[in-house]
Amino acid sequence: MMNETLRVIAERCSCRDYDGRLPDREKLEAIARAAVQAPSAMNRQPWQIVVITDKAFIEEMDAEGMRILSEAGDKAVYERFVNRGGKMYYNAPCMFLILKQPDTEMDAGIVSENIAIAAASLGLGSVICGMAELPFMGPKGDGFRKRAGFSEGWEFGIAVLAGHPAVTGTPHEPDTSKIRFLE
Amino acid sequence: MMNETLRVIAERCSCRDYDGRLPDREKLEAIARAAVQAPSAMNRQPWQIVVITDKAFIEEMDAEGMRILSEAGDKAVYERFVNRGGKMYYNAPCMFLILKQPDTEMDAGIVSENIAIAAASLGLGSVICGMAELPFMGPKGDGFRKRAGFSEGWEFGIAVLAGHPAVTGTPHEPDTSKIRFLE
Predict the structure, then answer these.
(1) pLDDT at residue A88, rounded to an integer
(2) CB atoms inside a 10 Å sphere around CB A80
(3) Do A57 and B108 touch (CB under 8 A)?
(4) Of the candidates B4, B28, B39, which has its C-beta nearest A14's C-beta?
(5) Beta strands in chain A (DSSP E)
(6) What is the predicted pLDDT for the residue at A143?
(7) Whole-structure pTM value
(8) CB atoms within 10 A of CB B4
(9) Tell me: the pLDDT tens digits for A58-116?
(10) Phi and psi at residue A59, in whole multiples of 5°?
(11) Residue pair A181/B51 in contact by the 8 Å Cβ criterion
């Protein structure tokens, strides 16, 4: 059984290499709109969606994230990024930064998947990026939070990087052994 | 900007009244497949998808959940369910029960939204239901966990109820004030 939406879900894959070109504003708006159409517990909608296309801001956060990784005890993650081109954000021209209220990880996950599916439906690549929290955790964190417009009671939820893929990705083979029916 | 997938996302709404008819097995399989196509942190896929269509099991969990609610200090939630027909699971013929590993709420959220979107694309209603944890928390919890196949290290993540809607729902108006662009 297949339809257009199921095809988009099946073909979506996490993109870790972007060509840097900014997607059309109309596409970014459509994706942000899909984000806020997500369901949430008790319809509280405990999120804010900050669509960052400010190249300088993204590059500063990327550099700070890489610096933090370079000083980590375990250098494996840092080396992996260096080998992939040295960019923690993979040269993505756009970050959908999801701010959340405390204890709403699940809602943030739901929103992030709406963003990923909406992006895929528009021919864009995306990757849900928990690592994007790093720059907010270091000494420059306060400045970054201010610039991104965090207000009292709001915290980093998750980020979704998006843009035009520089390479054609292949989805993971789904592990259907994780499904069982109780009939 | 609109396409078929964005339309499905826009028109999805949480269904709280089912006609009880079991959807075609092919549809349930397609939804479960969409679930395991979700992205996850480090591709760990920290989930199991239990598709429960065992009517007796669903009804027993529903009755136990209602019993627990009826004994809660605050009766408001219980009264709301009573006024809606007395069924915590809204007469849904199918529950996608997502088991998770500890500290993977966000991954569970991502999976649950794939299920909700896939169901909507197939003309089915669904509702993400955190309340479905209740029966697993009471005195019958051990028995329910055993029956649902929880194994060591796995816990309740979230559930998505699905089926044919008994009523036509209307999506929430999306709150676009929660979106801002940083350009």
Answers:
(1) 96
(2) 10
(3) no
(4) B39
(5) 47-52, 94-100, 125-128, 155-163, 179-182
(6) 98
(7) 0.98
(8) 14
(9) 999 999 999 999 999 999 999 999 998 999 999 999 999 999 999 999 999 999 999 99
(10) -70, -35
(11) yes
Q: Which residues of chain A make contact with B116, given a CB cutoff of 8 A?
A: 39
In the block, residue with structure tokens 């990026």: A129
Residues 6+ apart with CB under 8 A from B73: none
**Which amino acid, B79?**
E
Residues pairing with A50 in the sheet: A97, B180
Q: Residue B51 and residue A179: Cβ atoms within 8 Å?
A: yes
- Largest alpha-carbon pair distance within chain A? 55
Structure tokens at A88: 């923690």
Which helix (H) or strand (E) segment holds residue B20: the answer is: none
Angstrom CA distances, B127 to A114, A155, B12, B48, B72, stand at 15, 26, 10, 18, 23
Tokens of B173: 């108006």
Q: If pLDDT is split at 50, 70 and 90, which confidence band does B109 have?
A: very high
